[in-house]
Amino acid sequence: MPKKKLFIPVILSLVGTSAYLITKKRKETKQDNIRQALTKSLSQRFGKENIKGYWIDFNNDQGLEYACGVNIENDDAVVDSYTFIFNPENNETYSFKIINSSFK
């Protein structure tokens, strides 16, 4: 008799865990696709060798546009930091604002 009582919670636990893992994997895949698109867009704009790092704020509930930042090294060893908006639907970056310039 006790085996019947444990059957339903075990099944519910397995379903819940499976749903969580599937959702997590989809989110990771979406974020990886956004990272690749952003890297390609930044490489076209600044040149691949000039990019010294970037960040993306994935804490956007709607997921339409993302706040981002990038560090770009110029030819004269100056590193400029910019913030901007990235739209993953059309791979568009816009609203670039310089926030810092420093020597390497």
UniProtKB/TrEMBL annotation:
Keywords: Membrane, Transmembrane, Transmembrane helix
TM annotation in the entry: 6-23
Record protein name field: Uncharacterized protein
Record organism: Fructilactobacillus sanfranciscensis (strain TMW 1.1304) (Lactobacillus sanfranciscensis)
